[in-house]
Amino acid sequence: MCGYMVQILSLSGITRDLEEGLRSKCKADIVKPYTKIFPDGEQYLRLPDALDQEIYVAQSLYPEQDRKIVELYLAIEAVKGLDRKVKALILPYVAYARQDKRFLVGEPISINALYQGLKIYGVNTIVAIDVHSPEAFSRLEFRLINILPHLFMAKYAESKIEFVVAPDKGALHRAKIVAEGLGVGLDYLDKYRDRVTGEIRVNTKELDIYGKTVAIVDDIISTGGTLAKAVDTLYSAGAKHIIAIVSHAFLSSKSIDNLERVGLKELIISNTIEQKISLPKWIKVIDISPLICPYIL
Amino acid sequence: MCGYMVQILSLSGITRDLEEGLRSKCKADIVKPYTKIFPDGEQYLRLPDALDQEIYVAQSLYPEQDRKIVELYLAIEAVKGLDRKVKALILPYVAYARQDKRFLVGEPISINALYQGLKIYGVNTIVAIDVHSPEAFSRLEFRLINILPHLFMAKYAESKIEFVVAPDKGALHRAKIVAEGLGVGLDYLDKYRDRVTGEIRVNTKELDIYGKTVAIVDDIISTGGTLAKAVDTLYSAGAKHIIAIVSHAFLSSKSIDNLERVGLKELIISNTIEQKISLPKWIKVIDISPLICPYIL
Fold this sequence. Notes:
The structure is a homodimer of 297-residue chains.
Chain A: E1 7-10, H1 16-24, E2 29-31, E3 34-37, E4 43-46, E5 54-58, H2 65-81, E6 85-91, H3 110-115, E7 125-129, H4 134-139, E8 143-147, H5 150-154, E9 163-166, H6 172-182, E10 185-188, E11 190-193, E12 200-203, E13 213-221, H7 225-236, E14 241-249, H8 253-261, E15 266-270, E16 283-286, H9 289-292
Parallel strand pairs in A: 1-2, 1-5, 5-6, 6-7, 7-8, 9-10, 9-13, 13-14, 14-15, 15-16
Antiparallel strand pairs in A: 3-4, 11-12
Domain Ribose-phosphate pyrophosphokinase N-terminal (chains A, B): 15-120
Enzyme class (chains A, B): transferase
InterPro entries (chains A, B): Pribosyltran_N, PRTase-like, PRTase_dom, Rib-P_diPkinase
């Protein structure tokens, strides 16, 4: 294959690693805007000259979610100004996706607030990695290609996975894909509230993990607290070796220390977001661009 | 008059001082959302219970413009979720208003990119203080009430103003209102590029300011460089005393030092944006809420 087939306008949130993957593995032509920050803090952006008639626009919305969202809107408006068409947005990490309904009266649906405006510019399709709430995008009538990367990432586990666990029932669909793909057992951590103490506890009695290498599969590491607790619980229930496979990881020295302290042996994360700190060897970052390639042909 | 007539949902960008003005001088009922920041940096917002059927939403978009814009969208979406109506937005300072057209190919029109989405939520009217580019909002078919506060602010000048100067021809409309209101002379700094050195120079030969107290009238102090240069030029041309009346001022210790060094005697600014540092006595902050009151009756 000579030359590129698709062009991707890659914004500031896309990691170098993912950008390189999109270039070399998807054979995409990566173009970048000229950007700067004005003295008052406002962003400036200008698209490059050689823009195809139809392009993809890629942006990952972490860290500094609000700046990344504004940058995205500036870029999309500029694309429209050049009479070019956005074939799809590539959003490896979608911010503000947790608040996908009004849990309490008076709350916004953040997804509506921040993404609905993209429709003004004719954006209809979003290619994303493991969005927290796909339904919310469907309600906005976006076509959402929501890629779950865990089975692909599991290939890179050094330890042989013998059992897969979801940290709660709601996360079971992710773990199921991995368990089925590897042909191993599957379960989830059955949490309940202790009637006496009010604490959240886990019923581990029926977990078939004694002496096994167990993989925890989840969408996000935020503070790392949930994962650390799950690791602790699984060791107590007899697991021999624990690894975690997580799509998006906001890692800090503190969360890494916590995870190391509870004995997590291997953490596999994707390159959807830029890591602010250098990572120890037991944390592996996997380029998930091969999962995106099929959708930008 | 007993009780309030209008309700204003006041977001984080509105200064305490302006909020107090809207409360006491406009007799508005000020309500505020509950807000917090999640550990990952995302904003959370929840509207208060006692919300009128029709409300005003107030937000000033500096500093941290991008966060303030996102907060505004979250609030507007939440208002819609409660089936309440936004009578108008009150935007004392409108960010991203400079990029009101495509100066270069490939640039966005920032105003379109960031404000057009508000129309999805039925927002049609904006009450603003001295917007950089009113036309851009008209093109988006917003009703824009653009308040120029300088004549009102000029009342607070301790020195008697004898002449009014705009820093360039484009800013003349602001200065004209002040000159007419005070019944004094008016001119602007006629800038030209020196054909030999390429420097920007000012033709001061015909300025009728010798021995006079001169007021410079402008919309914004960003780095303070333009104002400092104007002050310097006017002293060279014979002004006795110089004051400045500016709608929006992003002040830093450095810009204040610069203005003091060139001999600015009095600076009058409005309370559209929060000042990050404490200001010296020769800088006066004027509450411009009385100018907003008539439009929220």
